[in-house]
């Protein structure tokens, strides 16, 4: 057991934890923005896969992880246009659309990958940024302070979006659109525009989360690699009730269980692998049971808004 | 006013011409034309469902007319959205709250503003300035859902005054306000009028229309059926004006109901006085006994502390007080919706303190909430189902788990006629009815089928004069048959007219009880306790 506490081991644990946390955190923040505005994005899994695949393709062809991130972001944004046009503008059912987007995202990326890359399965070289000064510290220096630069950008994004939601007119409009769209409308705001922006931003962040997963966390794309992460993001969002800080904390908790699972697999302990793969889901479900009772999310979630209807 | 005299005839006018708007099954506005002049208070009157709110929501950009046109200062305009209305300087207080319950007062006020940052300081100072005018002090950081409905209304008025730079539209702004708040509103309206704003004012109280309004337009069944020009208004006495308005409002129905005397009575022009034939109920058995009841704290509004009273068979017990002083708490405690920390409630000698809502209902305790849209009705269900909501699953309306459509519809039709609910059909969604008609659905549901004690919270707010009369008659008849009524109201006239005794609630406690003996000083005595309650607030 003592070999578990070696510096290399702890560093590996931290790396695994953060790699599990960030994609989920980004996607959940995106979902939060959407749900706060009253749009339930069930297509997030598909958007993440699109982001993961196209982020991977762009990173491979341009040899730049940054451009890869941008590619993933754009892929997510473009996918979210489906939801934006068909639901926000035309009022089609959000659940049906979400499921369709998830199915299509998985299908398209798998077909393209199988056609182009399945023979060679190229990998993307790691591209970590050593925080000057801090990366020399033992243990955390090689893990926490040698993350991809995008890791820090993601944290910054979380802070910025949290701030926007609470402190700006835009954030206020988003929250009102999800709580009582008719009030936003009567106050001279535009429910349509507000929700469109929220959906688009949600798509971008989901795409970014997917690209982080493929390009930075695993250095490769595999079909259906999100493996239900999008649905976990929906749960995290429901749990967090619009509070970005909670999104970050719950995502971190998820990342921890992923890392624990990885560690358990490496030890000589005889833990069934099925149990290990189930662990993150079990933890999320327990948290849901404990804190999920007083959910106070958008009461009009999923309902398209029509002015003057009553 | 205007630099060019040629513009003068059209300047300062918003003209509606030939406005028509139909909804499934009703023509809400039928070829309505009217001019709204700057510097005037234009009253829009009409019975429930006459089409008043529809007309103003067209002006507010919330609805778009099927035909007809709007011109501002002679220039034809399209008001395609609420935002466009605001650009034209039109500020609106809608009949039903447009505040977002989960946002704070301040956030509600800032909603819809441009610019990146929330300007909290500016909003707070403007709120302070406006609440001074309205005679209200409202904590800007409290959630809108924690405000009493009267306070919510004041926040909305403040918000509309903010955006309305040329026209202010107030759809029943006084329905939830205390007399002193109504007075402050009247003063603010006069000042805005003097500054050259136009004001459209909707009310069901003719006295308010006469004292606050310069001219009147009367709607009936979606049509414009009468108007009083400012000159004509000035030339008429209050009683004459009321008679003329009532004739237009109710037309033949009124003629059928009786003479103009009854019209004056309808309008509440005569002094409020208790029924002459009031029987002494003190000798009768006690039906409802409340002893030392204190509720479990809840942020909604003031909770109740140590309330005791008993009500005899056939008695109407009035509860007076400023809105938000525990009225909702008391009603919920009685209906079983709110848990109590101590005290007992007994019905006909049997302890019902621990019974839930459903069991109390079965024993005949009914509650008519003042929150008709959210708590009271299910907007997406039909009028018929809403009328029978409390009898779901019961015979003869449900048999073996199956709804018996004919029985439900027959009962619904009976209630619709009895309560004169204006609805295209029993299957119309209740959410589409006019405000007053939704209130009638609620009353019709709760007052019937084996009720023994009814708790009514502001039962007549938003009702037209005839419906107010109807509800009063129903409550009186209910009491005459031995039923018990707890009548919570902010309108002193209503309390004096109906109650046997009036308890005054302040800060969640009953601070005094007045026997309504028909004496001339009843109002004064009630008022004394209310002020006493408020003086208490300050120490
Ligand atoms: N959005 C809507 N959908 C369907 N019907 C509607 C809608 N809005 C109004 N109506 C109908 O139009 C008619 C007029 O309603 P409106 O709300 O204008 O009446 P009102 O004069 O304001 O009555 P009240 O005094 O009760 O508020 C009613 O019969 C109502 O059922
Ligand atoms: Mg109305």
Describe this structure in words.
Chain B: InterPro entries: AAA+_ATPase, ABC_carbohydrate_import_ATPase, ABC_transporter-like_ATP-bd, ABC_transporter-like_CS, P-loop_NTPase. The complex is a heterodimer of chains A (310) and B (539). With 310 residues, chain A is mainly alpha-helical. Helix content of chain A is 69%, strand content 0%. Chain A starts with 6 loop residues before the first helix and ends in a 19-residue tail after the last helix. The model of chain A has no long low-confidence stretch (mean pLDDT 89). Chain B folds into three domains: 13-101 and 161-235, Rossmann fold (3-Layer(aba) Sandwich), CATH 3.40.50; 238-270, no CATH class; 314-339 and 355-530, Rossmann fold, CATH 3.40.50.300. In chain B, 37% of the residues lie in helices and 23% in strands. The A-B interface holds A 167-170, 172-173, 175-176, 179-180, 182-190, 296, 307-308, 310 and B 57, 60, 62-64, 81-83, 86, 92, 94, 98-103, 107-108, 110-118, 159, 163, 379, 431-432. The complex binds adenosine-5'-triphosphate and magnesium ion.
What is the number of strand segments of chain A?
0
First-residue to last-residue Cα separation of chain A? 65 Å
Low-confidence stretches of chain B: 1-9, 255-261, 269-273, 533-539
Distance between the termini of chain B: 51 Å
Bound molecules: adenosine-5'-triphosphate, magnesium ion
Indicate the CATH architecture of chain A: Orthogonal Bundle
Overall 3D form of chain B: globular
- The multimeric state of the shown protein is heterodimer
Overall, the morphology of chain A is: globular
**Binned strand content of chain A:** under 5%
Q: Helix/strand/pairing class of chain A, anyone?
A: mainly alpha
Largest contact between protein chains? A-B, 23 and 33 residues
């Amino acid at each position: 057991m003592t070999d578990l506490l070696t510096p290399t081991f702890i560093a590996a644990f931290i790396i695994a934890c953060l790699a599990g946390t960030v994609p989920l955190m980004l996607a959940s923040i995106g979902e939060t923005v959407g749900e706060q505005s009253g749009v339930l994005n069930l297509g997030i899994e598909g958007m993440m896969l699109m982001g993961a695949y196209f982020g991977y393709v762009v990173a491979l062809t341009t040899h730049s992880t940054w451009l890869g991130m941008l590619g993933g972001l754009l892929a997510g944004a473009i996918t979210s246009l489906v939801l934006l046009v068909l639901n926000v503008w035309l009022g089609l059912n959000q659940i049906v659309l979400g499921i369709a987007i998830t199915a299509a995202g998985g299908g398209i990326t798998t077909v393209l990958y199988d056609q182009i890359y399945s023979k060679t399965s190229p990998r993307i070289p790691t591209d970590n940024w050593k925080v000057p000064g801090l990366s020399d510290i033992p243990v955390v220096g090689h893990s926490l302070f040698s993350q991809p630069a995008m890791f820090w950008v993601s944290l910054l994004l979380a802070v910025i979006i949290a701030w926007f939601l609470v402190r700006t007119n835009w954030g206020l409009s988003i929250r009102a659109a999800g709580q009582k769209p008719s009030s936003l409308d009567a106050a001279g705001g535009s429910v349509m525009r507000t929700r469109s922006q929220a959906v688009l931003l949600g798509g971008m962040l989901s795409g970014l989360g997917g690209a982080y997963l493929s390009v930075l966390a695993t250095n490769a794309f595999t079909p259906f690699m999100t493996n239900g992460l999008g649905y976990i993001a929906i749960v995290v969002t429901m749990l967090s009730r619009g509070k970005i800080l909670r999104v970050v904390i719950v995502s971190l908790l998820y990342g921890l269980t992923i890392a624990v699972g990885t560690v358990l697999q490496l030890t000589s302990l005889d833990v069934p692998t099925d149990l290990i793969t189930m662990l993150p889901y079990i933890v999320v479900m327990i948290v849901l049971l404990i804190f999920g009772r007083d959910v106070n999310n958008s009461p009009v979630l999923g309902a398209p808004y029509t002015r003057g209807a009553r | 006013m205007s630099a060019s005299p040629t513009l003068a005839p059209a300047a300062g006018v918003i003209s509606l011409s030939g406005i028509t708007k139909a909804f499934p099954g009703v023509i809400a506005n039928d070829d309505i034309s009217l001019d709204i002049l700057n510097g005037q208070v234009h009253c829009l009157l009409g019975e429930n469902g006459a089409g008043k709110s529809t007309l103003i929501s067209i002006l507010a950009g919330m609805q778009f007319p099927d035909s007809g046109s709007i011109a501002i200062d002679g220039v034809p305009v399209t008001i395609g959205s609420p935002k466009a209305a605001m650009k034209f300087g039109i500020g609106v207080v809608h009949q039903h709250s447009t505040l977002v319950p989960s946002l704070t007062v301040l956030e509600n006020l800032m909603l819809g503003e441009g610019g990146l940052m929330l300007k909290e300081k500016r909003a707070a100072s403007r709120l302070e300035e406006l609440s001074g005018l309205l005679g209200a002090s409202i904590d800007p950081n409290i959630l809108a859902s924690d405000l009493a409905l009267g306070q919510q209304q004041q926040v909305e008025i403040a918000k509309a005054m903010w955006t309305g730079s040329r026209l202010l539209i107030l759809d029943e702004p006084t329905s939830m306000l205390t007399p002193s708040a109504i007075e402050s509103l009247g003063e603010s309206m006069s000042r805005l009028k003097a500054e050259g704003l136009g004001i459209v004012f909707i009310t069901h109280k003719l006295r308010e229309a006469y004292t606050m309004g310069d001219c009147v337009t009367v709607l009936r069944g979606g049509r414009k059926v009468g108007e009083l020009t400012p000159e004509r208004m000035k030339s008429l006495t209050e009683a004459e004006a009321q008679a003329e308005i009532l004739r237009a409002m109710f037309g033949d129905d009124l003629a059928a109901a009786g003479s103009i005397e009854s019209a004056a009575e309808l309008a509440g022009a005569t002094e409020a006085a208790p029924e002459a034939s009031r029987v002494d109920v003190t000798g009768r058995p006690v039906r409802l006994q409340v002893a030392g009841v204190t509720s479990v704290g809840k942020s909604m509004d003031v909770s109740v502390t140590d309330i005791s009273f008993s009500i005899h068979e056939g008695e109407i017990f009035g509860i007076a007080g400023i809105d938000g002083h525990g009225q909702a708490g008391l009603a919920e405690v009685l209906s079983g919706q709110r848990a109590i920390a101590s005290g007992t409630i007994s019905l006909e000698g049997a302890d019902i303190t621990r019974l839930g809502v459903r069991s109390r209902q079965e024993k005949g305790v009914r509650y008519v909430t003042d929150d008709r849209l959210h708590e009271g009705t299910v907007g997406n269900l039909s009028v018929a189902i809403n009328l029978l909501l409390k009898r779901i699953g019961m015979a003869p309306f449900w048999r073996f788990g199956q709804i018996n459509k004919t029985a439900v519809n027959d009962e619904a039709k009976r209630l619709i006629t009895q309560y004169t609910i204006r609805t295209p059909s029993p299957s119309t969604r209740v959410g589409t009815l006019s405000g007053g008609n939704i209130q009638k659905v609620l009353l019709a549901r709760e007052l019937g089928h084996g009720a023994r004690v009814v708790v009514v919270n502001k039962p007549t707010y938003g009702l037209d004069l005839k419906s107010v009369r109807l509800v009063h008659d129903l409550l009186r008849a209910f009491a005459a048959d031995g039923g018990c009524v707890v009548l919570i109201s902010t309108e002193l006239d209503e309390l004096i007219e109906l109650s046997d005794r009036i308890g005054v609630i302040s800060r969640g406690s009953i601070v005094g009880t007045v026997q309504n003996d028909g004496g001339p000083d009843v109002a004064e005595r009630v008022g004394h306790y209310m002020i006493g309650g408020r003086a208490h607030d300050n120490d």
